[in-house]
Description:
Blueprint: E1 4-7, E2 10-13, E3 18-21, E4 24-26, H1 30-41, H2 49-55, H3 67-79, E5 88-91, E6 95-98
Helix pairs in contact: 1-3
Amino acid sequence: RGRITRFGQLEIDEDARIVRVRGEEKPLTSYQFDLLCAFAEHAGRVLSRDQLLDLVRGAELEAFDRSIDVHISRLRSKIEKGFDKPLLHTIRGAGYMMRD
């Protein structure tokens, strides 16, 4: 097994590009996976939209700043179901932060 990062019931296997929640594999797009890895790498730090776009460059990069909000919303819906509290937090006026 490769590099595995855990946040409570969330497990990210970076080498295999697999995400599991409570042992159940969650299918993510490549962009969502890269976004989740960026959050995990910078857990506990607030990341602005611009910082996230810089960290997750790729084919889906859009000039429209708020597109990142849609990606984060879709990521939340896939990984946060059944959790008592969210992993990805919106910090009003600043960006987003991952914390458990």
